[in-house]
Design brief:
The protein is an all-alpha fold. It has one domain. Helix content is 64%, strand content 0%. Helix 2 packs across helix 3 and helix 3 packs across helix 4. The longest helix is centred in the N-terminal third of the chain and has 18 residues. The N and C termini lie far apart (29 Å).
């Protein structure tokens, strides 16, 4: 999983890593991304780590912030 590769350097504690993983999974679901090995999921993982580094600790908030940052048209 791309997110694990980004956070494995030891700078992220176990609890924060779990939060970032949940946020990553939620963002992928919301964006409809199934292949965790493509370039788009890498970008999502990088953005999740960036937003998580701001101190945000709720996985749903992190996922929403990342998705909002992509400025995608609302599909609803």
């Amino acid at each position: 999983m791309p997110i694990n590769r980004l956070i494995k350097d030891g700078k992220v504690d176990t609890e924060t890593g779990a939060v970032l993983n949940r946020a990553f999974e939620r963002a992928l679901r919301e964006l409809g991304l199934l292949n965790q090995k493509d370039a788009v999921t890498e970008i999502v993982a990088e953005k999740i780590v960036e937003v998580g580094a701001t101190g945000m600790s709720d996985p749903d908030e992190i996922a929403r912030a990342v998705i909002k940052g992509f400025n995608l048209p609302d599909a609803r």
